[in-house]
Amino acid sequence: MTHRVHNFCAGPCTLPLPVLEEVAHELVEFDNSGMSLIEMSHRSPVYDEVHHNTMSLLRELMHVPDDVSVLLLQGGATLQFAMVPMNTLTPGTTAGYIDSGTWGSKALADASRWGDAYPAWSGAEEGYSRMPETSDLDIRPGSRYLHLTSNETIGGIRMPDFPEVDIPLIGDMSSDFLTRPVPWDRFDLIYGGAQKNLGPAGLAVVFVRDRLIESAPDDLPSYLAYATHAKADSLANTPPMFPIWVMGKVLAWMKEQGGVEAMSTQTAAKARAVYDIIDSGEFYRSPVDPRYRSHTNVVFRLPSPELETEFLAEADKAGMANLKGHRSVGGIRASLYVGLPMDWATDLAEFMSDFRATRG
Ligand SMILES: *Cc1c(COP(=O)(O)O)cnc(C)c1O
């Protein structure tokens, strides 16, 4: 491919070019089988190998302990907002939720529809400009877990450290999945939609502690019980074969790059290139407290909405797409997920610097 737009979309995301090329090459006929992988039975030995390869790469890259199961599910991160409380909140228990923005508050809303859940902290009054520290949290007796969103994709805020509390953590890591090491001793469950960092839409990845699966109510509809999927290696029903296949390729690419540790360094470096421009003058402004700035979703403002409109139009002409902030907050947002090349981030930084020089 000769021309590739610099796509800063918040999700679905830019994927590594070598992965897309490999998929294109293998799509029509998979491995001399005479058919496409996505036309095959999900019970075939050929698909089975692809499926388990993806699962074992997840375990390897995330250093997943033996008593944690890896599940590949449908319904996105959104279905996990419901499945988490359904599998954990029995009568008499409650759960604390960190309301750190759009996604944290949606998770809390769904948990409250199913069981008893409360905000352990809310950033609403501060305009969601930071994450809480452990000392800010109000954990009530009888709390089964504390739910957090490690990175708020819309607000552009990130938890630099995970809370140190004496109940298990459950984390929505959709938008910084595999860009940071996980302290497994503190987590009972981690989930995310694959389309932000790991692959195409249509797949959610869930890491769940076996004791949580075992203590879940046994009267849930089968798809909604983690046990169904854990027992069947995520082959209880037809799995989303295409995104599982492509995500396996993204994971193999990540491994080649040096795994989560390398992704963490690269992601931070891409974000720094853009924040450095923001901080080097008065023209651009970040609404986020520097300690909590996201590495994957860099949110910023220009001096006026008119200049923001102009910025987006000029960026588009320069081959940089999807920089408009979420409709709920406005401004500009550059999403810099793992598949986005470093030079796209530096090209954006250079474009921002040039734009400022002519309009500032
Ligand atoms: C995008 C996003 C979601 C929703 O994901 P879906 O897979 O579309 O359901 C949830 N949480 C976070 C942090 C997100 O970025």
How would you explain this protein's 3D organization?
This protein is α/β, with parallel strands linked by helices. Helices cover 38% and strands 16% of the residues. It has 10 helices and 13 strands. β3, α4 and β4 form a beta-alpha-beta unit. The protein is globular. 45% of the residues are buried. The mean pLDDT is 97. Bound molecules: pyridoxal-5'-phosphate (PLP). Pyridoxal-5'-phosphate (PLP) binds next to α3.
Helix content estimate: 25-40%
* End-to-end Cα distance: 36 Å
Q: Number of helical segments?
A: 10
- What percent strand? 15-25%
Report the radius of gyration as a whole number of Å: 21 Å
Pairing-aware structural class of the strands and helices? Answer: alpha/beta
Q: What strand order characterises the main sheet?
A: 2-10-9-8-5-3-4
Number of strands: 13
- Element order, helices and strands? EHHEHEHEEEEEEEHHHHEHEEH
Largest sheet: 7 strands, mixed
Any idea what the shape is?
A: globular
**What are the bound molecules?**
pyridoxal-5'-phosphate
**Unreliable sequence segments:** none
